[in-house]
Amino acid sequence: MNTEIKKDIKKLMDKLPEVIAAKKRMSAHIKEYGSLESFNDDHIKFVKPL
Fold this sequence. Notes:
This protein has one domain. The protein is 62% helix and 0% strand. It has one helix at 3-33.
């Protein structure tokens, strides 16, 4: 396997716990408020479809 690919995979694996925690915060926000209108998190970016 290419070393650049290995480095990219390692970066993604290092970020995985942060992403999982952000998803849990997002789910908790939806349960509490019913939508994501006022949800802000550094690990989650919302993108509008084209």
